[in-house]
Amino acid sequence: MENKLALLKQQINEIYDLHYVLALLDWDQQTNMPSGGVENRASQSATLSKIAHQRLTADSIGELLDDLSDYQAELPPDSADACLLKIIRRDYNKQVKVPAELVEEFARITALGQQAWEMAREKDEFLLFQPHLEQIVANRQQYAECFAPYDNIYDPLLDDYEPEMSAAAVKVLFDKLRPQQVELVKAISEAGQVDNAFMSRNYPEDKQWQLGLGIIKQFGYDFECGRQDKAMHPFTTTLGLGDVRITTRIAEDDFFSGLGSSMHEAGHAMYEQGIDRKFDRTPLGSGTSLGIHESQSRLWENMVGRSREFCQYLYPQAVKMFPEALVGIDNEAFYRGINRVAPSLIRVEADEASYNLHIMLRFEIELGLLNGEFAVADLSEVWNSKMADYLGVMPENDRVGVLQDVHWSCGLFGYFPTYAIGNLVAAQLWEKIVEDIPGLGNFISQGEFSELREWLRKNIHCHGAKFTPQELVRKVTGTQISSVPYMKYLNNKYCEVYGMGARG
Amino acid sequence: MENKLALLKQQINEIYDLHYVLALLDWDQQTNMPSGGVENRASQSATLSKIAHQRLTADSIGELLDDLSDYQAELPPDSADACLLKIIRRDYNKQVKVPAELVEEFARITALGQQAWEMAREKDEFLLFQPHLEQIVANRQQYAECFAPYDNIYDPLLDDYEPEMSAAAVKVLFDKLRPQQVELVKAISEAGQVDNAFMSRNYPEDKQWQLGLGIIKQFGYDFECGRQDKAMHPFTTTLGLGDVRITTRIAEDDFFSGLGSSMHEAGHAMYEQGIDRKFDRTPLGSGTSLGIHESQSRLWENMVGRSREFCQYLYPQAVKMFPEALVGIDNEAFYRGINRVAPSLIRVEADEASYNLHIMLRFEIELGLLNGEFAVADLSEVWNSKMADYLGVMPENDRVGVLQDVHWSCGLFGYFPTYAIGNLVAAQLWEKIVEDIPGLGNFISQGEFSELREWLRKNIHCHGAKFTPQELVRKVTGTQISSVPYMKYLNNKYCEVYGMGARG
Question: Are residues A223 and A341 in the same domain?
């Protein structure tokens, strides 16, 4: 049996080599590839995706899994091998239902779709992207059909990113959360607004780049096993546990967006960099779900990066780098400016209080689109009307509207809800961290992040995908995924920032 | 039969997708990969190489080739399909003799070897590289053994880069060439030496970068289908005919080395960019041999880039960019400085007159190493003593000696002779070009390269690998590959530069 397990692992290792190479193809497309390379890139992604899929769904894998099922049952359930076999079986059972052609087509149309999205966004012409998106939506519908019957066509897609979650469960979560977030945003809008005009003064790109690099190095992002580049949309990608890369984007008229992106992506990357290296080249060698992943990125971006203590650490560095832009801004104004709440158009730049509303909007649009309630051609109109409803703002063009995010061009339907789940889990973890690390605030205000990083490494990162999201959250906090700590965190923080009375 | 041909082409297309992806893995390693990624990269290259090899040598390919042999015989011999089938058959017949494990190992040890070479070069410690190189030499010996019997163990390796060539034929060529080049270098050394002290003044990196970019753009290197990056060793790589990338390296105390590298690699890249797009994703979609490839790079670097006419075009730009470094240097001194002949340590920076001596040295060392006449451990000593013999110079360390070139770390044994062949072919083509394009000198001095580029595209580039090197040279020049035009070119040029009487 040990031989069969070794054989299975070897085959899985090679499949993961292919997945890492696919990640490189995508990273390169988003950072370096000249526009003329897109047809080649689409073929390369399609061929490699097909081969990876054929290898995972090969009869030999199914037979090895069958042969190993008694062996697996006898292993301690928390052992690495038991968890590995469980996940391989889950992935095998899922992928074996999907025809290779659909996988190949998905890789091809999303490689082409990404370039079309970039052009459409640059030129603010949704029509350039529309035919691509129509193909992608159709492909995702066909993919979901492979798993019929389902409660909602959304479920098989969501399951790829957030195991154990369903559209119905997300709805329950969002239905509870929405009125509380709307109420908070409303209360804030009735308080006196914070002035953050300084945030949109001129912050030269190269200095922003240096500031961001310095901060994430201090966080503990390991540049021996990673690098940061610029891309149209910030992302993290893993080319193996020894090579976890991030990207950011910088706007010279925005102090926080580039830095926030860097801290966010470094949070993702430190998760992967912290995984036990013995899980490399296997499905255990990645974050357990995108929700848990997002808990890491949002924790570093917000609980740390937008905290009063971090601003104490950041402020003198920022003043030194941008003395003109920050003239007349004291530490308190700096902190409050960074935490100004005002419903706005761009998700990745949204304040903490309104962020989840962006996610709810996307979730509803995805549900409507996949269930055929409206067409891709109507997307811009639907988007704009929902923005008005949810956030009270109206995009003046698609560039800052429906074309703002890369996800749909990559076919990532079912992905957005994980951002909101990440916010909730981040707050749950933060409560526990504050308990476990006395003096955490002092550490942060002194730029000392190693205690925090090691806590995360030990409690979250090292496990990779060994535990399911709910198992992991329960293991660490003793509770299920819940929105209570998040709303408590938001209410406390923003009542203080806006000088409002305590809230429920 | 058309169906079978289509099926074969489809399989070959996918194999070439894998080759292009392998090229990306290597490009990324040499330009971007963090050091921690090397183990993952080695596994990825090994897995992909194995899959590409297994696919090419699959029974189904052999059967399709057999089924198509009568069909092939009836095609016009110069038709694309006939040429394609011929090359697929050649590659299949060769690779089917090689075990997949050897291919996989080669990819793994060369990925690791490259990083070891980089470190060894940085630290000037040959011992860091030695065990890697020993593995690589052993692997190449085993690879060559797959093709026994052979006249020389070198032949199967050389054949991968230069079909129709053998170690014996290279010896004949070099034995004729060596005394003539040695005599020329000696004559020059007895003439009054040119002063080129200005060449090693300070030339800021960013300005050199801009100058190089401008020049190769003017040559016609297409940045829509390519890009230039920095790497420890300059190279060109094709990720598909829509994405042909080059790298360069810049030394601030050397006016020409970065620019020369850029022009050289752009010469390679324009060859691939000029191939008929219908050959993309097939073995026809690349240069027909490395010798012919090198004829293109050396032609742009030397026949163009070191010509009197080009210096007329370059000089005012250079003076504008580097007014301090070029103070007191007139156009004539500039031209003569760039063409100063002085035997030196670094091949890629060698003058035209002594360049081939570097190649002969490497050829002899490779022959000795592969035939077991000396060990990797002796390499540094052998190198230094041959440098003294051939070029009369002695490396003061391995960094500028045996560790200077990337090739052996990549396992590229049998590759170096193609550089000398390229020089010869470049001169043969140049004679024809000068005949075919009246006023070429004037075009060049005005920075107008389109006539030249289009001549090359039409006569050389577009054919890809349709014709063998000898076929192509005969088709264009009416003669075999020969050293006569090259020696004539060198003698004419350098007698003029050094004010010597007519030679040869």
Answer: yes
